[in-house]
Design a protein that fits this description.
Mean pLDDT: 84
Strand order of the largest sheet: 2-1-3-6-4-5
Number of strands: 6
Oligomer: single chain
Radius of gyration: 20 Å
CATH architecture: Sandwich
Number of domains: 1
CATH class: Mainly Beta
Shape: globular
Largest sheet: 6 strands, antiparallel
Strand content: over 45%
Structural class: alpha+beta
Low-confidence stretches: 4-24
Order of helices and strands: HEEEEEE
CATH topology: Gamma-B Crystallin, domain 1
Length: 100
């Protein structure tokens, strides 16, 4: 019986590996520069898909290899403006998310 249990556990583990596990979080490579109410800020290698609430911010410069979407409200809500890699903008924003 122990042999059957081990076989089932091994087969289950093999099935999970074949189907795949969730990939680790990917990060944009590069820097996002912006101005906050406290002065200049640099966000380094931000994680894809994660919403960064940044408070009252403005004038972003997207020096990452991902598209950055800037939102007018916290938690990536409100109006959205996208900046491609290498672009900068004269806009105010409260949160940002990076995507491929």
């Amino acid at each position: 019986m122990k042999s059957l249990g081990r076989t089932l556990v091994t087969a289950g583990a093999a099935a999970v590996l074949c189907v795949g596990l969730p990939l680790d979080a990917r990060a944009a490579e590069g820097l996002l520069f912006y101005t906050s109410e406290y002065g200049p800020i640099v966000l380094e290698n931000p994680t894809d898909g994660l919403c960064y609430s940044v408070g009252n911010a403005q004038d972003p410069q997207n020096s990452t290899d991902r598209v950055a979407t800037f939102y007018s409200a916290k938690q990536c809500g409100g109006d959205a403006t996208r900046l491609k890699p290498g672009e900068d903008g004269l806009l105010a924003f409260a949160s940002v998310r990076f995507t491929r």
